Amino acid sequence: RVVVGTKVDQNHVNWVTAYNMLTGIRFTVSRTNAKMDRELTDADFDAKHKFSFDITGNELTPSAKYDFKFKDYAPWVFRHLRTTFKLDPADYLVSLTSKYILSELGSPGKSGSFFYFSRDYKYIIKTIHHAEHKFLRKILKDYYNHVQDNPNTLLSQFYGLHRVKIPYGRKIHFVVMNNLFPPHRDIHRTFDLKGSTIGRDFREEELEKNPRATLKDLNWLRRDLHLELGPTKKDAFIEQMRKDVKLMQKLHIMDYSMLIGIHDLEKGNEENLREKTLKVFQPGGEAAEEPQPNQLMRTPSKLETARKARELRQSVKTQKPVPMEQTSARMPDELEDSKKHFYFYSDDGGFQATHEDDRPGEEIYYLGIIDCLTHYSLIKRMEHFFKGLANTESQISAIPPERYGDRFIKFITGVTKTKEAAEREKAESALD
Length: 432
Ligand code: ATP
Ligand code: CA
Ligand code: CA
Description:
Layout (H helix, E strand, L loop, with lengths): L9 H24 L8 H5 L1 E6 L14 E6 L1 H10 L4 H9 L3 E2 L12 E4 L4 E6 L1 H20 L8 E8 L6 E7 L10 E5 L12 H4 L4 E2 L1 H6 L8 H20 L6 E8 L7 H4 L4 E2 L20 H17 L5 H4 L23 E4 L5 E11 L7 H13 L10 H15 L3 H13 L1
Helix pairs in contact: 1-4, 8-13
The structure holds adenosine-5'-triphosphate (ATP) and calcium ion (CA) (2 copies).
Adenosine-5'-triphosphate binds next to strand 7 and strand 8.
């Protein structure tokens, strides 16, 4: 229990916050799921419900470990969205409310958002800025309609929008969304592409220290990489991207990116164990011990991670029991999933490369358009103004949504070609 007035370590706050988030989700999602399904009304898009949790509980809410307030937004809309995205209601609850939650994603992004993975790695909770929250509520109907018309959308799949607040704490808004990356496959390289070049370079020297880092546009170009899709898949992919981008242009959204995780089928899963031993985080549950502030949400040092990975690998080889802390982070080997219904997630949870004759290729892409709640508003206009003084407009990332989208489409389309086509083009340009 948080004692008001005591200085609470920041790590500790995260732990309590995560516990409160999960408790709130469990309560509000079960509450909505318990009712008979019905058609949506306009009012459903504006709906919000506030709940108070405390250690004693009351006629409405069960008792919880901490005092906090929880707000649930548009529960019926998100229930329908979860259905559209073919989530199993019971499964969703189990994933998000089991005793443990796995948390990672290195240091939070520039935006200050925090990311939490569900224990089974299927869902991501992202804390969002109040402006993003307001904006999502505003565009919810457009998003909902788009998803109904485009169940194969590449846009982030939103499953819930909530807010949590502890006494005297600030309001924390968050969304639950799909994790694009699979629990059961190594991602050998990750790229976050915007179609811009300014500042879109991850320092290659850093890659040694952090081999899993997310690379950017310039790193992609430097490697002369392509999204290797044969004609059938390329057409479908580009067409869907165009539709998704069109929606974002209409809604004046920008700053989104195409997140691409590449699984190299030849390399396979050798390194898988390592990634799965990172951090385990226990927000409550009977067996969980009270948090020790300094142990929570702490990023293990490189040495620790390497040591644990070694231990785990050893213990697998020698059949020694795996320490508890690590077992709890073991990932499923198979993808059981609803994902196969969706074109871009149907090859082992992703989208497998193809050759010119549509024969399957050597890589699986786990991809989608992320970070799509930034409205072209004040902040971006300011960035445009400041950066615009030094750089030519075509290169900066904060250009107006219309052009941002066009540039995005142009870039992604430009790098989508088969190995064969890329080689041919290279040979041709050598002749010129
Ligand atoms: P910024 O505004 O500075 O770009 P942000 O806090 O809004 O940062 P995002 O751009 O949404 O963060 O995501 C940051 C990183 O988190 C991505 O580059 C990617 O590595 C990871 N990530 C985000 N969303 C997902 C997702 N749905 N699936 C898998 N990984 C994700
Ligand atoms: Ca981003
Ligand atoms: Ca962002």
